[in-house]
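Sequence in, structure out.
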Amino acid sequence: MSANWIRRGKFRDSAASVEPAANASAKNDIAFEGARKKSGSRARNRVIMAMTCFMGIYAVIGGRLVYYGMQSDEDAGSRGPAVQNLASRPDILDRNGEVLATDIKTASLFAEPRRIIDPDETIELLSTVLPDLDWEQTYRKLKSGAGFVWMKRGLTPRQQSQIMALGIPGVGFRTEKSRFYPGGPTASHILGLVNIDNQGIAGMEKYLDSQGLTDLQSTGLAFQQGLEPVRLSIDLRVQHVVRDELVQAMQRYRAIAAGAVVLNVKTGEVMAMASVPDFDPNNPVHALDKDRLNRMSAGTYEMGSTIKSFTTAMALDSGKFTLQSKLDASRPLVIGRQTIRDFHGKGRVLTLPEVFIYSSNIGSGREADAVGIEGHRAFLKKIGLLDRMQTELPEVARPVEPRVWKKVHSMTIAFGHGMMTTPLQTAVGAAALMNGGKLIQPTFLPRTEEQAAEVAKQVIHPQVSADMRYLYRLNATAPGGSGKRATVPGYRVGGKTGTAEKVVNGRYSKDVRFNAFLAAFPMDDPTYIVLTIIDEPKPEEGKASATAGLNAAPMVANIIRRSASFLGVKPDFGQETAPMLVSYESND
């Protein structure tokens, strides 16, 4: 019984010893599983935290990008000029390839106000190199807190190096394109000028922008190496002669202004044109002054007796007059309260050529009266004197005429009073009188005779043009002709004077004049028109008057004498005799 007890006790003992071991193993398994779960939870937490950090960083970066994107429009001006401001412009050349305008690289000074420590010290240092710096305006810029402001555009290399030597923090330089005109003021009214951002604002520079250059710049396609040079019709040599003569004439005759144009009558090309006072496009501080107006195309004037060229041509073209016609100029014409007199009247009947060379107001008035008011206005419109001229130059004025034409208007306009037109279109109209009767709108770009023929309009009969060539030459050679001082030996010059009284306080003044001379050469086959004007000239020492024959005519002679060889006109001394009046057969 005890053995059984013992066996049962051993059994119990072994069973007791086995149960604790099994329980311990189970507990160990449970502990390992708990530790494993705890470790996995920590790993997941670390991954989540890492992902959260990365997402936060990218969110901050994305937020800043969105912020800068929203601020781009506001801050564009503070980060500097747009790309198109640095775009190139094509070189401008004269007809012979001489450079008239080109791009050069210049340095411009900018500042970053946020980096400026002491604005007062910065301005003080800069003023040692830039003495014209506006202290008050510059101080406001430097205190603005902006990211970018311009301080000075278009520095010279010397100014740049001097500012760099100052070592001022917060300022720097930016390379820009700047326009340079090697001839200075020589052709300023033709070339025009550009603004600080290299954009054309006047003259042919503005014309180039209107022809697509602005579009190229806005798309970033305007690069110097990709732009073909633009060749103009003008000859720089002739242009220099013309301007030089105008400057001398202003001084010699103590005038307020002068101008001239040389025009090819067969192509309409402007070979040279100048108006003084002018300006230097490299430093155009005076470009907008009233007295620096381009008088040749942007100013309108009563052109005086030069208009008698058109009155005479109108009379001949009407079929009512010939070179043998006679007109009564023995006494003044009275129309209402208006009395028309001759300046140096002959007091007799005049032939039509005499009316022209003696510049008879009475005879011209009778020619207009015979044609009639409607016919007179229609002729001037046909010849291009009443409409705004069409050419590349933007600065072109519109002529001024009476709102309602009456008989008195027609008769005074016949001798150059009562209608205002530009000198350039007066020259263009005169070209039609010389070239066989074809009106060709002027151009500042090269044009061949074939191209001119495509745009030309026949405005008068070729026979009338031949008659006018005869009269022009007669006025320069016959006794009493007013164009003698415009003659140049060997070049067969002809022309017509114009002395117009200017209106002062509502009335014509006998002492204040606007003078002109309209010339052509060589008269056997006219190729060029030369028109000179001089505004309010004073009598030379020892002379009692200052009529066009005494000042505007010599200006023409000097221009032709100095420039004819450049224009390809050879002198011919075998045709210096006075013209013979002959009868012409009609081609119709």
